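Q: I'm writing up a methods section and want to include an example of the input and output format. Could you take the sequence below and give the corresponding predicted structure tokens, formatted cleanly so I can copy it straight into the document?
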Amino acid sequence: MKATGVVRRIDELGRIVIPKEIRKTMHIREGENIEIFIDGDQNIILKKYSAIKKLDDFAQRFTDAIYAFLKYNIMITDTDRVVAISGPLKKELNGEMLGQDMLNVIKKRESILEKTPKQLSITDNHSYKGSYMIHSIISNGDVVGLVILLSDEEKIGETEEKVVHIASQFLAKYLEE
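A: Here is the clean output for your methods example:
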């Protein structure tokens, strides 16, 4: 465990304030969930919660199945990073932190369809040019991630739109159970 040197007092309602520097370092934004653990030495451990991260292996198999059918790059993200991806971009993007453009899509709860090739910033270090569809995964009223489909040059058709929509709805329902 890494010491921060920060000491905080618990208020009368049992709350503590996590310092801004730590929230920024850990990419914890207002309204996000924190998981609380107690280890064997009775230490309280706070961990950023990701509902999608629980689906790690399942999400990868899910994107693999979609890729086998559509042959387009397909990815599932949580609110911070790419959790699962299938297609040629897998080595570049798997596990990468999302860039500000994707964080804004999550914040605005957007679904985007770009049928003609356009530049898309997925991470701070990786932009992609092509057609794309982005659909928010909304579970229990909260955006928990995105389903993103990327096409090099071909226009995204009705079938691809429906697959992305169904994938996000399926993941949302799966997480609610």
